[in-house]
Amino acid sequence: MKTNGKNKYLAFTGGVGGAKLCVGLSKILSAFEIAFVVNTGDDFTHLDFPICPDLDSLMYALSAENNEELGWGRKGETWNFLRSFAELGGENWFQLGDRDLAIHVMRKQLLREGLTLAEVTSELYQRFGISHAVLPMTNEQVSTKIQSQGELKSFQKYFVKEKCEPKIEKIVYHGSKHAKPVPAVLEKLRDPDLSGVVICPSNPFLSIDPILSLETIKSALLSLDVPVVAVSPIIYGSAVKGPTDKIMGELGFTQSALGVAEHYDNLITHFVLDNEDVNLCSEIEKLGLSVLVCNTLMKTLDDKTELADNVIKFIKNSFI
Ligand code: GDP
Predict the structure, then answer these.
(1) Rounded-to-integer distance, Cα 5 and Cα 25, Å
(2) Residue nearest to atom 26 of ligand 1 (CA)
(3) What separation in angstroms does the CA of 153 have from each of 45, 171, 236, 314?
(4) Which single residue of 88, 89, 125, 159 has CA 20 to 30 Å from 240?
(5) Which one of 1.10.340.30, 3.40.50.10680, 3.30.70.60, 3.40.50.170 gives the CATH number of domain 8-317?
(6) Quick one: DSSP state of residue 229?
(7) How far is the CA of 21 from the centre of ligand 1 (A)?
(8) Any residues with Cβ below 6 Å from ligand 1, and which?
(9) Which pTM was predicted?
(10) What is the predicted pLDDT for the residue at 1?
């Protein structure tokens, strides 16, 4: 196998979908070899608690604490708090499980003690026995907002309350212009030993673009001379879960892996798409991208590890 002698990777991810590949990557690469950069554009304050959906989804996935039946949240969840709160007339549109709530209470406590979000994240992940570095994209507030029917809505209103039904006209990453990335993100992007960057099969618009909305992250990515590989979250024209395909259509992109490749085109050098989409291969190669076709549907731990292995081999086999 060809190799450039370096062996450090960085993966950009959102929550549940991207986390599947992160689990695979964490199984084949040590904490020294890979770190994860996580979207915080979905973060919001609810009942006075700081909620970080993607950071928590990844924490549960990496520690095998994720709730497989629900497809989100924490394993073995109970709902006593939410039920009791609703009985008192409290709002219950956002599903706060008892076990999940403990994280938000702890996060609030640690933030109040003066820790940054990155420090709190590191503390919480350690308590979950996770040794890989997981970095929120920023310690500051960047909020994804959805413009629909002329109204600028909070992400959670659109995603949870309105179940992604309204047609999106535009997505705004409020605060991104002035927010600074967590310093370790830039340090890792500028590490001379960096071998490649993986853009996980997350929602490009709601999970990855908020990270890229931080100009210094985007420019650091653009100036890399190592592979930047995106894995398609769209298989055979559909999202495995969630509104990615619907949003692509609404924003004028082709609802396919090709549309994803076109969206990331100037930022990436390599693209991974599913066996089901092999017919799109030559069109994606015409964009100037190196393409890998393999199974990208991750149902089991073996699927996750196998895809991670394919992605890393794809990087190792490439010289730009
Ligand atoms: P969220 O923040 O929880 O919405 O999760 P992400 O943004 O990280 O991931 C959402 C995306 O993951 C959706 O577009 C799904 O199509 C994609 N996804 C989920 N499971 C899989 C899978 O097994 N394979 C691939 N290729 N994509 C997946």
Answers:
(1) 19
(2) 233
(3) 15, 10, 30, 40
(4) 125
(5) 3.40.50.10680
(6) E
(7) 9
(8) 13-18, 20, 54, 57, 201-203, 207, 231-233, 235, 239-242, 244, 296-298
(9) 0.97
(10) 42
